[in-house]
Write a structure and sequence with these properties.
This protein is α+β, with helices and mostly antiparallel strands. It has one domain. The protein is 51% helix and 15% strand. The protein is built from 4 helices and 2 strands. It has helices spanning 3-11, 28-41, 45-57, 74-77; strands spanning 14-19, 22-27. The protein has a two-stranded antiparallel sheet with strand order 1-2. Helix 2 packs across helix 3. The protein is globular, with a radius of gyration of 15 Å. The relative contact order is 0.08.
């Protein structure tokens, strides 16, 4: 088994996360990126740098048929 295979296997594992008092399942990779994104939004400079580097490393649009994630907060819904 190669290192790429192991990375994809672990990154695509489903994990249960508690979000707003309810259980949500997502991939381990998605959970990690959401955590980095949240830290960056909360003004953690190292998380913002890491997120910027990830965006530069993987430019472009999502793959066709890929999962698109949109997070809405209560304030977003108050138009």
């Amino acid at each position: 088994m190669g290192i790429s295979y192991l990375f994809r296997k672990i990154a695509n594992e489903q994990v249960a996360i508690e979000l707003d008092g309810r259980q949500v399942t997502m991939t381990r990779w998605e959970a990690l990126l959401r955590q980095i994104h949240t830290l960056a939004l909360n003004k953690h400079a190292s998380a913002a740098r890491l997120l910027h580097q990830l965006r530069k490393q993987f430019p472009g649009s999502a793959a066709p048929g890929g999962k698109i994630i949109t997070v809405f907060r209560d304030n977003d819904l108050k138009l």
